[in-house]
Amino acid sequence: MIDSQVRGALDWLEGHASDEIRDAMGARYGIHTNNAFGVSMADMKRLARQLGRGHELAGALWSTEVYEARTVAALVDEPARVTSAQMDRWCRDFDNWAICDTVCFNLFDRVPHAWPKVAKWSRRPEEFVKRGAFALLWSLALHDKHAMDDQFVDALVLAEREAVDERPLVKKSIVMALNAIGVRSAPLNAAATASAQRLSDSPSASARWVGRAAISKLSRR
């Protein structure tokens, strides 16, 4: 049953593929992957709705290593059934910012193990694992309505520590996490702004860039 669903999903995706979309993925959007059909996000969401929720199906779709199939996997998986080990496996497989952010924003931020992963992944050297930490923090700041302010204040320490990373995709995710934290409340805006100010005064050029970019966004709140 699962095998036939996966074959059907791959056929559907290939049938909705566009050379124009595939060519634009890297050149226009910076989504660099060697295994993609070129399918719009709207169509991937449409397929996910047709398939419905399914944890085993999500795992099988992820195993295909096809970008669009992995995107659909994030949309159909069942958060309550996602294990800590699965989160680590999928995070290690991230190979571009889009799959990283899609999985964090549509699945991982709803998983009971989400918060510990922010701290764990932030210490990892791999580009998309580290981005995963801050994409997840960014998403939690926007979506976790039950989180306490102290959790985000503690996470700001991680952001300040890792802002020295010079890789653009990591730096940008930290900026967005700081901004999202600042949106939650006036006290958190003040805390995030203080973190950004410290970063803007850092001897690290990367940290200064993060701090100044974050202050620019936070000051609009």
Please tell me about this protein's structure.
This protein is mainly α and 221 residues long. It folds into two domains: 1-77, no CATH class; 84-221, no CATH class. It is 72% helix and 0% strand. The protein is built from 13 helices and no strands. Helix 8 runs antiparallel to helix 9. The protein is globular, with a radius of gyration of 18 Å. The protein starts with a helix and ends with a helix.
Overview in brief:
The chain has helices at 2-15, 19-27, 41-51, 55-63, 67-76, 84-93, 97-106, 114-122, 127-143, 149-162, 168-184, 186-200, 205-218. The protein is mainly α and 221 residues long.
Whole-number mean pLDDT? 97
Q: State Rg.
A: 18 Å
Helical coverage, percent range: over 70%
The low-confidence parts are: none
List keywords for this structure.
221 residues, mainly alpha, 2 domains
Question: What is the topological layout?
Answer:
Blueprint: H1 2-15, H2 19-27, H3 41-51, H4 55-63, H5 67-76, H6 84-93, H7 97-106, H8 114-122, H9 127-143, H10 149-162, H11 168-184, H12 186-200, H13 205-218
Helix pairs in contact: 1-3, 1-4, 3-5, 4-5, 5-7, 7-9, 8-9, 9-11, 10-11, 10-12, 11-12, 11-13, 12-13
